[in-house]
Amino acid sequence: MANHSTNEFKGGLKVMLDGDPCNILENEYVKPGKGQAFNRVKLRNLITGRVWERTFKSGESLEGADVMDLDMEYVYTDGDMWHFMKTDGSFEQYAVDKKAIADVEKWLKEQAVYTVTLWNDNAIAVTPPNFLELEVTETDPGLKGDTAQGGSKPATLSSGAVVRVPLFINQGEILKIDTRNGEYVSRA
Amino acid sequence: MTPPETNGDWRPSATLETLRQRARLLARVRAFFAERDVLEVETPVLGHGGSTDAHLDSLSLTATTPAGRERLWLQTSPEFHMKRLLAAGSGPIFQLARSFRDGEVGRRHNLEFTMLEWYRPALSLEGLIEECAALIRHVLDRDPGPLTRRRYRDLFRERLEVDPFTTPLETLRELSSAHGDLSMADAERETCLDLLMSLVIEPELGRQSIEAIVDYPAAQAALARRRIDPEDGAEVAARFEIYLQGVELANGYDELVDADEQAARFASDNRQREALDKPMVDVDHRLVAALEAGMPAGSGVALGLDRLIQLALGKASLSEVMAFSTPRC
Hints:
The structure holds 2 protein chains of 2 kinds.
Chain A: E1 3-5, E2 14-17, E3 20-30, E4 38-45, E5 51-57, E6 61-63, E7 67-77, E8 82-86, E9 93-96, H1 98-101, E10 113-119, E11 122-127, E12 131-139, E13 152-157, E14 162-166, E15 174-178, E16 183-187
Chain B: H1 16-35, E1 39-40, E2 46-47, E3 60-65, E4 68-74, H2 79-87, E5 93-100, E6 112-121, H3 125-139, E7 147-151, H4 152-160, H5 169-180, H6 189-201, E8 210-217, E9 226-228, E10 235-244, E11 247-254, H7 259-275, H8 285-293, E12 298-304, H9 305-313
Parallel strand pairs in B: 1-5, 7-8
Antiparallel strand pairs in B: 2-4, 3-4, 5-6, 6-12, 8-10, 9-10, 10-11, 11-12
Helix pairs in contact in B: 2-8, 5-6, 7-8
């Protein structure tokens, strides 16, 4: 991979740092009145998800990371690995381990399309679609007529996630959920 | 052919209301100098020489001039041309000069910006610090507090319990590595000091006052005279910086007027550039000749006007006080 100098650093650039692929979030140029300039850089470690703040001397460079985001359909899990398939018609599959699937496990739905992040052709992270339609598998019975009042109750969804839903929702209903904050949006 | 997508960024990066306020502040700056009989001048943005400072990156271009095809340098500040005016007997002068510095991009930097630079023959550095504070008060609508002074070495002693001149280099390397979360194992003393200044000290400067920092290390003299600190015999640069709300606003010198010393610093800068693998910059021989002819001793200061306007108007970034910041130019 090519090297990237600090003056090429910008949000979204993928670089290698301490052996891990990182996504640059922010790059701030700082300089005393006269003298050496530095770059204060915020990076997200794509393996651990942690955000690092590091300083570089302006003009230093980092090796680029071979990181790609691909659309893939969730197919199944064998208990140890989760299997995704490319949507480009190649039927090529990638196995994702527990570490990479992390808490996206509770947002998995067969045939839904996820963003799978590959590093050197290995899956290192999975991002669910912003909105998913999921069935309620368990919740307290709905309160008839209570469609306008506030108040909420927990509901378990077919993917395993537990979300707060309005009191009028019943088991078996399909709901639209925002996966970014785990909030109920509407009935589907 | 479809034009490239512009996403509405043809629009100014500043609001029209901000541009009106900016114009009002510019008028205040001109009134300040008119009242003090300082002559407004305009000097070229291009020069046959550029800044050799190892930590400034000059832009250059090739143009057809009366001499044929020539390489010309976009000025990083109007300093050289203004000093030639001083040597020609101009007396006190000021300029609002568009200046260019490659690679300087960020919330407080823009590739091109407006430098307010002025020179006061016969005025002491202390006198210029006071005038600089007066200008800042004249431009701001609110009271920024009193003018205070601190020595560069006292900043480090008070904030970090090290002495920039005498603490062993290894200690400074460890300290700057820890503060910047990077390896400074083979960094030079000046690089360690620059990092600690930028990351640790600067953000706290000028919070309660207009804060002038004086007596910089001799290695950071740039085009200032050097002198001996009477307290301990250390060589320091007769130079000041002014900070307000953690922002470096101005950089002033007791100006170097010795032609030989000037020529030597140009040469040493270019050697340093070579060591850093940076391109050579053509030296302004006419500045050296002007100093040989005789420039009156005195002081001069360069103030980042966009930053002052940014502080005056309480904006989060420089682009918000510029009609079109570089990404939209």
